[in-house]
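User: Hey, my collaborator sent me this sequence without any context and asked if I could get a structure. I don't really work with proteins. Can you help?
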Amino acid sequence: MTTVSETPQKSMVISRRLRESIRLHLESIYPDKDSRALTRQVLEAFWGDGAVPRKRGRVAGNNMWSADNTYVITYGNSIIDGEHKPLSLLQDFVTENLKGVIKGVHILPYFPYTSDDGFAITDYRAIDSGLGGWEDIERIGREFRLMSDLVLNHCSSQSSWFNEFRMGHEPYKDFFFTASPEDDLSSVVRPRAHPLLRKVETADGEKYVWCTFSHDQVDFDFSNPDVLLEFLRIMRFHINRGVRTIRLDACAFIWKEIGTSCIHLPETHEIIRLMRLLADFSEESIVLITETNVPNVENLSYFGNRNEAHMIYNFSLPPLIVHALLTGTSQFLNAWQMAMPPAQMGCAYFNFTASHDGIGLRPAESLLSEDAISQMVETVKGFGGRVSMRQLSDGSMRPYEMNVSLFDALKGTVRGEDDHNIARFLCSQTIAMALEGIPAIYIHSLLATSNDYEGVEKSGHNRAINRHRWNYDALQEALADETTQHAQVFNAMRALISVRTRQPAFHPNATQFTLHLGEKLFGFWRQSVDRTQSIFAINNVTDETLEIPAMALNLIGGENWVDLISGEPVSDAKITFAPYQCRWITNKT
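Assistant: No problem. I've predicted the 3D structure and written it out in structure-token form, which is a compact way to encode the shape of the chain:
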């Protein structure tokens, strides 16, 4: 891996406000260090390659995004053919099929790695040779807004950094967090069930390194400022290669302190505030998004006071949508939505229903009852899903996430499989597209990919069930056949996204209010920032045909109301919903 190097001093004009703001953050993170010297190092790390900061930082506002912002989430090798570079195939697929439909592409870690499908990185400045090269990444970045992962918490135990640590070489000998088996670690929040500490032999003797996620993923020690400085250099390196949205992976765990929970510590938030400050002073339009798979209230804290993440993953959404559609009741989904605060100006929710990981259950804690979670888990297992566990402080085990293709998770209801799979699945996607925030669609949801049991068997990991690799010829054949689930879902999704992107009321910061239409419907009202357009997004979460009187909605008199999805005009009489039908009823098309 590229070694840490001192960046030559560059001549650049730094505003006093920027310099002082950096210094104050550093004083909070490293009170025992020379904050002025560290400030110079931060400036050199982030701007020392010739880039220069803005004279003033960007002011948080609603002009950072618009209704046409949508991301697709994919691995670099989700599409293969055994002949061409996977990144080249990915570019061909998104350009040919999604150009003009979506704005952003999130390519999951595309660096050399040893495990966890890319999240045990060996070199943050290289491209996995099996995927392609930087020229492929930069090409995609020129056509779409590129999101890339900054895996802050850990790297591969086989990286050169960790090898240097074991040999006791500077500066890496203090790069990784160590503890003692005798330490009180009872309060540490665990996302996994394996032992937290791993014993390793080093030039300085036996040490126990901290491993939050696996023994191949060794945690960094951010109490060493050199670690932070190196990641700021990596951020700049990626920005210079076209990355404009930076995903801070597993950032909740980056600061450790023995005797605490080692999650969401004040220094963690302060580091993210520093990164936000640097992003806001960058000439490039940089957006930070935090990946914190935790209960809802904890997740919301990463907005800070409009000074941390620009976007946060809406982690509670996937389990709540799945529960509503499996049970036919929006009770819990409604309760959650009514309690959700609107994102602050300059912030946005990142609305997704499925990802490369499973459907997290921690974000559903306190939102779903234990019985509701158990019923959902058992139903999904009946549809071929798997369940991954985590260990609690008392040693007991608890479900951490459901591992399943979302399309297969919605094969039926708690009563079993039925014939509404496609309609139910599209309902889940339509809900997410209409909610306040920015939609993000996993490629295997876009393609209605089923459970990949062969992938699970080959890898031995539950998460492989939703990480299928499509042969490009087979994919094109499936999409060309309108009778396949893949073509039906893909075409419907493209049409929905295309409609969505033209509606001012779907701006990520447009007003939203929850409608009270009973438990069989999930509805909410969106209004554009300029108040010219209203959309009533109403979704039937049951397999029944339902009717509501038009007067149940506050349809403004004198306006012509129409359903954007079906194209049907809405009269003053009753509005009918087929099983799992969704309507976007608006006064302006």
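In plain terms: The mean pLDDT is 94. You can pass these tokens on to your collaborator as they are.
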